[in-house]
Amino acid sequence: MYLVLIIITIIICVLLGLIVLIQNPKGGGLSSNFAGSSQLMGVQKTGDFLEKGTWVLAISIMVLSLVINVSVKGGAQKSEDPALMEQIKKASKPTSTTPQQTAPLSVPAAQPAPNKK
């Protein structure tokens, strides 16, 4: 199921990329090809179709992303192994080590060297 959803999402991504590349933000693109001819879909209808197609594909990618995220069996799973749970508890507990009270090292005061005459 997961693999099928991934394949569908990739196909929709490719289609969305193609639709976006067909469009021209300055009014050209595929819409300008129909300006002189009387096709079934006119200039305005082609622009509307491409815009609606873009929205539908973008929304379907978002929905499929959420569905894939929900359907994935992984992530944080509860372990049933008591030995493993004990190790996790031991590792997550902070160890409270207090510094040892040691006597400060006493450094002997430097004796002036005797003058040799």
UniProtKB/TrEMBL annotation:
The protein's matches in InterPro entries, at most eight in alphabetical order, are given as: SecG
Chief subcellular location:
membrane
- The Polar residues compositionally biased stretches are 93-104
What residue spans carry the region label Disordered?
86-117
Where would you find the membrane-spanning parts of this chain?
55-72
Q: Which family does it belong to?
A: Belongs to the SecG family.
Q: Which NCBIfam families match?
A: secG (TIGR00810)
Protein name according to UniProt: Protein-export membrane protein SecG
UniProt source species:
Mucilaginibacter pankratovii
Quote the gene name from the UniProt entry.
secG
